[in-house]
Amino acid sequence: MKVFEAIADAVVAHGVDTVFGLLGDANMFLVADLVERHGVRFVAARNENAAVMMADGYARSTGRCAVATVTQGPGLAVAGAALTIARQARTPLVLIAGDTPPGDPLHVQHFDQQPYALATAGTFVPVSAASTAVRDVGSAFRAAREMPGPVVLNVPIDLADAPVPPGPVVAVPVVPRAPRPLVPDPADVEALAERLRSARRPVLLAGRGAEPAAAAIRDLADRGGAVLATTLMAAGLFAGHPYDLGVAGGLSRPLTRRTLARADLVVTFGAGLNRWTADHGALFRDAEVVSVDVDPAAIGARWPVTAGVVGDAGETARAVSAVLAPVHRPSWRSSDLAAGLAVADPFAGLVVESAADRIDPRAFIRICAEHLPRERTTVVGVGHFGGWPNLLLDSTATDRSFLAPWEFGSIGVGLPFAVGAAVGRPDRPVVAFEGDGSLLTGLGELDTLARVGAPVLLVLLDDAAYGAEVRKLAPRGADPGLARFPERDLAAVARALGLPAWTVTDEAGARVAFDEVLPLTGPAVLHVRVRPDVVQERF
């Protein structure tokens, strides 16, 4: 048995049935063995960065540890942005990276992969000997699941082809240690309970880290007379609750914004509280802010807080509920507020105006709200365009059906994350919103989408520009033309790469396109030419 075969056995023993990647000298025989001997599905991307993003999307939509593989040198180097995104999102992911022979520092593809992996993924596990390969695979999976976060499993090309020493090679899955929920200090619990007793207009704000604790936070809100809100990443977590304000931040809706402005206490649970969540200080400016997080370093790191509680979100919410007598706040949790939230229309009051050859993006999103299936995975890429679906479309973080990979601010994430999510959850369609500039950074992944054949509707909101840069250049007197580009027929490009595609320039055309593309049974592209002068002010 060769080392790459032993690694394949160990990977499969960890329950892996899907691998994303791009072939090269240092990993192609590993991939061939995974496919031919083990029946693993290999999703071949056109770019290593996209391959790791696909794996990240797969992990986020399934909750499983994802696996990707790239070759040595440039293969790993190209994947740096995706690894950084996964690290900031704490995505459990193992990237099996080939490496050049340690004894050949002049190899054309040589560079020092360990510091690069530590700077991006954050964790590096080298396979240093044939006798330790299986153990090293186990260490990589354990680290990815326990941290959690991405891990680079580094396999030199000469070692991968070396024979495994005689003796039994048993690929025993390494079961990660289940972390014990961090119980908060009783003094901190009582202090938070006292703040809730004294507050007149409290808000409980949950982030993605609090998703498992949603029920406990809802119970605490009911007991403490608080209203509920979420960060963008946890959008829809409290959907259906009569006092769910929705997303807090720059993308808050008008009623949410007015309500949060009156808050005198905001308690965050598992939320990466930052300037966007606080809308640069425009939201809850008069409120005390208490942050509950398992990581003490995260409390107050990106936005000032009044106090912090180190503890698991669910454990903390339940502990506070246990010492808090029911509090009724009819002036805060009013019937008027509940009624307003129940009938709130995000499109009310919007004055939309489409040009002759370009649709107002808000008008298009309104048509999306009318036509898109409720049971779907929604992926929103990074860019000015992303403000419209995030602001106007209802999404839900429950069942891992909303992905906004905005952690690193990297463009080009929408399409690869959508492919990964679709591979991971083939039982529901994926609707991905992407911009023209973002798509053109990874155009080859249209081919990947066509080959995968998954039900993904890629919505391209095309303003023929990098819209965020145009918006920022012009007010300071710089030439916004630097961020504008010629119009391209992206629907024709998609069709050339094997995808059915429609071009949308007006509301009637949008409705016709949706009638033709839905229900979604395979990949499709809507190339939507939007007015470039419609600005999302709080993006």
Summarize the entry for a quick read.
Residues 382-528 form the Thiamine pyrophosphate enzyme TPP-binding domain. This protein has helices spanning 3-13, 28-38, 48-62, 74-78, 80-89, 113-120, 133-146, 157-160, 186-198, 214-224, 254-260, 313-323, 335-343, 361-371, 387-392, 414-424, 436-439, 445-452, 467-473, 490-496, 507-517, and strands at residues 18-21, 41-44, 66-70, 93-99, 124-126, 150-156, 202-206, 227-230, 244-247, 265-269, 288-293, 307-310, 377-380, 402-403, 430-435, 456-462, 501-504, 524-529.
What would you note in describing this structure?
Helix 10 links the parallel strand 7 and strand 8. Helix 1 crosses helix 2, helix 3 packs parallel to helix 5 and helix 14 runs parallel beside helix 21. With 539 residues, the protein is of the alpha/beta class. The radius of gyration is 25 Å and the shape is globular. Strands 2-1-3-4-6-5 form a 6-stranded parallel sheet, sandwiched between helices. The chain contains 21 helices and 18 strands. GO terms for molecular function: acetolactate synthase activity; flavin adenine dinucleotide binding; magnesium ion binding; thiamine pyrophosphate binding. InterPro entries: DHS-like_NAD/FAD-binding_dom, THDP-binding, Thiamin_PyroP_enz_cen_dom, Thiamin_PyroP_enz_TPP-bd_dom, TPP-bd_CS, TPP_enz, TPP_enzyme_TPP-bd.
